[in-house]
Amino acid sequence: xxxxxxxxxxxxxxxxxxxxxxxxxxxxxxxxxxxxxxxxxxxxxxxxxxxxxxxxxxxxxxxxxxxxxxxxxxxxxxxxxxxxxxxxxxxxxxxxxxxxxxxxxxxxxxxxxxxxxxxxxxxxxxxxxxxxxxxxxxxxxxxxxxxxxxxxxxxxxxxxxxxxxxxxxxxxxxxxxxxxxxxxxxxxxxxxxxxxxxxxxxxxxxxxxxxxxxxxxxxxxxxxxxxxxxxxxxxxxxxxxxxxxxxxxxxxxxxxxxxxxxxxxxxxxxxxxxxxxxxxxxxxxxxxxxxxxxxxxxxxxxxxxxxxxxxxxxxxxxxxxxxxxxxxxxxxxxxxxxxxxxxxxxxxxxxxxxxxxxxxxxxxxxxxxxxxxxxxxxxxxxxxxxxxxxxxxxxxxxxxxxxxxxx
Length: 407
Description:
By secondary structure, this protein is of the alpha+beta class. It has ten helices and 21 strands. The chain has a domain at 210-341 and 363-405: Alpha-Beta Complex (2-enoyl-CoA Hydratase, Chain A, domain 1), CATH 3.90.226. Strands 1, 2, 3, 15, 16, 19 and 20 form a seven-stranded mixed sheet that branches. Strands 5, 6, 7, 8, 9 and 10 form a six-stranded antiparallel sheet that branches. The protein has a six-stranded mixed sheet with strand order 12-13-14-17-18-21, with helices on both faces.
């Protein structure tokens, strides 16, 4: 996939080597990305602010130079530049936000490879909750999905390395690799007392986009991601729905990790009048809010009956679309609370070979509800149990069809 970074606002989800084009938003092509750069001078200095005493920083800097002894065989000696990068990484980490990260040259090169469309990996979306690496959702048909990785799994080790204190980006680095190679993770799963070991062989990942089906007089659209093709494929699925003569629609967004904001806005526009708010982008008190509105395709009449299926794997763009259609009264939500992925990052080039990914905003629903604060709450809470899965039952889909048939 070739992504025009100056055109699209995309969501980062730190997808395990399925290109970072999903999850929390990232700005690309900003005017402040080409900053003037001078090699940092390594010398005792102080900030312009008189309230900050830099003496401890330089004291530690010099003590490390004088006293540190390498004890590991083959350890690579640290350079002055390495220390500078490490200090900047620590400053970014001090904000306590897992999505605000400074990338030194090696990590920056790896990250740029991800967002440019390198599709080798296992195919699952990761995030951090309560300082743990968790699986938002495995992508249908990928090694992670086939191996039995489940949404909500907490990854406790990768190839024997504990994930305690590990960042999302480091977790991706451990899991990524060439197609045909193997990676082993251990996961903790709700309701299971012992860790589960899962082995996967990395592959070139082909992300599915959309499926359609019918159950009786109900038309079902299942969307798996909001990629660059999603808007066009959704348009065709709607044509098929209209051609079917049916008026009852189930839109299945379970396990959908999100993707392009543009796609979510375009899809919402098929159901909303022109100008209706789809999502608000809140930058805090310093910058005016940006509002994304329906383009007003709005082809459906009041005869349309629509249910959206959601769960803990429904994230970012999926939540934006679901929240907009729920709050505008177009559709009811059935399932469980969504993931709550509603922050936006800007990728800023710091030097020719380093960059800073910094959280700059959060997504709000049309009514001003922060998506990050616990996700969306369904109108009808319906869980799927292990017994349901074993029996091949889908009580969430059953509830959706029941509601459509009775209204």
